[in-house]
Amino acid sequence: MRHAKIEKTDAEWRSQLDADQFHVTREKGTERAFTGQYWDCDADGTYHCICCDAPLFRSEAKFDSGCGWPSFHTAHNEKLIDEHVDRSFGMSRTEVTCHACGAHLGHVFPDGPAPTGQRYCINSASLKLEKDES
């Protein structure tokens, strides 16, 4: 099931997000490698969109790619992730956004591990982890 589309003004997003979260999710920014709170996190749980709380990735799909950003081989629900061609900075990449609110999450590359061969390279600033109850 897809979440309903969420639309807010920049002022509304700014009141909800901190400066880094706004820059990454609403302005298609990127946090510096090895600086985000989740790049080396190994807690069990579900990673949700920081903007709209859509459940995007599960910890079981997270792996250490060595790139300095949280990396996942599979989305929790493919219908909650949209992919777009990104030709910024003289490159051609596949941008990943939240289907529900359009938040920029990061990029996906075809160099990940089994079972998908995908590497969703995601900014920590676009995520919040809901840890599993022990």
From TrEMBL:
Instruction: Identify the catalytic residues.
Output: 121 (nucleophile)
Q: Which GO terms describe its cellular component?
A: cytoplasm
Manner of cofactor binding, per the entry note: Binds 1 zinc ion per subunit. The zinc ion is important for the structural integrity of the protein.
Sorted alphabetically, which SUPFAM superfamilies does this protein's record hold? Mss4-like (SSF51316)
Q: Name one GO molecular function term.
A: peptide-methionine (R)-S-oxide reductase activity
> Any idea of its EC number?
1.8.4.12
Q: Which GO terms describe its biological process?
A: protein repair; response to oxidative stress
Catalytically driven reaction(s): L-methionyl-[protein] + [thioredoxin]-disulfide + H2O = L-methionyl-(R)-S-oxide-[protein] + [thioredoxin]-dithiol
Residues the record lists as binding Zn(2+): 49, 52, 98, 101
Q: In what residue span(s) does the MsrB domain sit?
A: 10-132
Q: What is the top-level taxon of the source organism?
A: Bacteria
- Name what cofactor the protein needs: Zn(2+)
Task: Write down the InterPro entries for this protein, in alphabetical order.
Answer: Met_Sox_Rdtase_MsrB, Met_Sox_Rdtase_MsrB_dom, Mss4-like_sf
Keywords tagged on the record: Metal-binding, Oxidoreductase, Zinc
Tell me the NCBIfam families matching this sequence: peptide-methionine (R)-S-oxide reductase MsrB
Q: Which family does it belong to?
A: Belongs to the MsrB Met sulfoxide reductase family.
**Protein name as catalogued:** Peptide methionine sulfoxide reductase MsrB
